[in-house]
Model the fold of this input.
Amino acid sequence: MLTVLTALCIAWLMPTQDLHQTMNDRGAMVMSFDQDKTAHHFYLYEDGGAIDIAVKDASDAKDRDAIRSPLPHIATMFGMGDFDAPMLVHDSKDVPGTAVLTKQKDKIDYRYRETAMGGRVDIVTKDRDALSALHDFLAYQIKEHQTGDPLTVTKRK
Done:
């Protein structure tokens, strides 16, 4: 039986790629689509942000449709202050920003829309605390998913 200390040592010694793949495996279970065949993007905007998930191959209708299935539900869950999905994907109860996003849920609008390659959740708020927490949450996602998306706040296009 592994002790907590042993498990932490193993995790510390595990290559980053293995940790990333483990997160992707949890993401596939939570989101029901192949994480390696899709691209996650997270955007920080002056009025909020966005989560965009798309297939890498335009002919991949199976994963495109699979993206479209959980995203409306995720938008609804986030709107109710429920951030269990990212906590499961990242295997952490300490996903940055989620405590404030839960507390300020009535001041944030989460809108799902279908895109040609998948789906997108646009997130808008006028509340300064919620905006800061949202940017913390999205920046964490950018780093964890290794998307390469900018960590700077821009105007929504």
User: Anything to note?
Assistant: The longest helix spans residues 128-145. The first strand starts at residue 38 and ends at 45.
